[in-house]
Design brief:
By secondary structure, the protein is of the alpha+beta class. The chain has helices at residues 2-5, 9-16, 18-31, 37-55, 59-75, 83-86, 91-96, 101-114, 119-132, 138-151, 158-165, 170-177, 185-193; strands at 206-213, 228-232, 235-239, 243-249, 252-258, 271-274, 278-281, 288-290, 297-303, 306-311, 317-323. The chain is built from 13 helices and eleven strands. α4 (37-55) packs antiparallel against α5 (59-75). It is elongated, with a radius of gyration of 24 Å.
Amino acid sequence: MAAVEALTPFQRALRERRDQVNARFRMAKHRNRSLSAAEVLAHLRTRVAPVVDAAGGDEQAVTDALVELTFAAAERDALGSPAFAALPALAGAVGAAPSRVPSAVFNAARHLADAEADQAGWLRTVRTLGALVPPAEVERLLAACAVAAWRHGLARLRPAALAAAATLAPDLRGVALGAASPVSDAALAALAADRWAEPNARGPVALRAVRRVGAFTGFGGRFRRPPVVHAVGGRFFAVADGTWELVVDRYGAAFRAVAGVPDERRGEPELVLRPGGRVVDAASPGVALALPELASPTSVAGHGGTLAVTTALSHAVVFVARTT
């Protein structure tokens, strides 16, 4: 009896599922022939056990969820994902929702990596959020993590992240957005209205080159030839051997393959490209920005205070905006 009492929560739970774990390993090994038992055991000991032992709640449910996540990751050669290292900081939340929190963190980290976004920065923010949000408030934690994922580069999350941010208190919202102070409802509305705005911005509004998107396929980009850009209903599209919607904002950019440019009303730009690469603001006479690289444009499209330009000498789309 003394030896049983000395077992940790993880050891007790794993002992109860020994046959199932062994069977799950055989399945994972069938799907990933390079997988080794030693690798899995080391992962369970160093990455999973500390979370289970600190999580509280139903130790069996927590162990089952993390063991399954381990094997799912092992089948993808993803046991080295840094997402596992962030879970101890969320142990209480893992204990409260073992089937949701670990998989949400792992999947978000994978999407950030696939998008070449700031995965490491997001995981640092997640650890900070884990220390601020009570373990039982899982919905609030996941909402804050989603906002942080947008801020760290998942531009396609913008609509969902703005909705999630609206459910958070200003101080937690500020942490998720990386702001130096709480982000009020008014400041959040400003972010929603201007895709290029900085949270709590106090600087002047000006014309700025805000983002450069795309590259030649030979350099790891999307375009085999210089694209042509279009603006439709506030959305931007690039055409070059295919058509992509360009989902862009202050925090990042994403390409979404689409069947074609929508047959809708084109954008009404307030910014105009003049000869020599001079961008002027029709809404503010005398406001201009000189960008010599845009001196030989091949296509120009805009909506409101955002202008997208392509040139013959580049496979990129350059965005210029009126923003803080």
